[in-house]
Design goal:
36% helix; five-stranded mixed β-sheet; alpha+beta; 129 residues; 17% strand
């Protein structure tokens, strides 16, 4: 099941114009998987991000799949404070890579950050013309 850090994040994830439906599907399936296997919810902590927010986070301009250009292709999920065990994270990683592989060779799931900022980054590749 999906939970959201704020109501705004729910609106962003389900915005059919600004959020890529593939990342929405990936997120919902992972939420279903985590609930069924671990009885845990996915807590969404970031969907859209502006360039200004990106600079605040990284200290410089860095491109991001969270930008709505043309659509947001990424979602961040809470994983800090040992929310998921190491075994559960390996299981989530395996599930996403098996069912939602990216065609551009990048990983659709990344575990990164430290301490309170440790999270799961989910993403899909840009659409090609």
């Amino acid at each position: 099941m999906l939970k959201f850090k704020t109501k705004k994040l729910k609106t962003e994830l389900f915005d059919i114009a600004q959020t890529d439906p593939r990342v929405r599907a990936l997120t919902q399936e992972l939420g279903f998987w985590a609930q069924k296997l671990f009885t845990k919810d996915l807590v969404i902590t970031c969907v859209w991000r502006t360039e200004e927010e990106q600079v605040r986070i990284y200290g410089k301009p860095v491109s991001s799949a969270h930008f709505c250009q043309p659509q947001c292709r990424a979602v961040d999920v809470r994983a800090n404070h040992d929310y998921f065990t190491q075994n559960e994270m390996q299981n989530l990683d395996s599930f996403i890579k098996k069912y939602f592989p990216r065609k551009d060779g990048l990983s659709p799931i990344v575990f990164h950050g430290e301490g309170d900022n440790f999270h799961i980054h989910l993403s899909v590749e840009p659409l090609s013309d």
